[in-house]
Design brief:
By secondary structure, the chain is mostly helical. Helices cover 66% and strands 0% of the residues. It has four helices and no strands.
Amino acid sequence: MNHDHLDPINALYMPEMADATFATDFLSRAKQGVRNIAFALTETASPEVRELLKKMLTQAIALHQEITALMIEKKWFHPYELGEQYKLDQLSANNITLIGKMKLFPADTSRKGMFDQAPDESSKASELEHESRNIPRR
């Protein structure tokens, strides 16, 4: 990977990598949802709320299973092949490192000199213009 973020070659396989990243994030959040609902279930005393949380927990587990199945099908996740999963994790770590080293922003972020005058000078200039033309102020 070269370090030019505008070079189209750097977009090669980017949609697939983005999809895998989104799916991984979705899986992580689904897992957090299962944990949170299970925790809430252990904390509630109301039978009605307990039943509602049980239904929600069943749905959350089903969602987690669905995302996991999709990721396995797309070869974005290898829960039964640790060697393959390790390779994917290494590839992700290398990509993150390379992206982190890219020069995405200019070294000099100063905006000095980009405007013809400073904001406070602008108001002074308009006052002088009004006075010189005898234009009444609003």
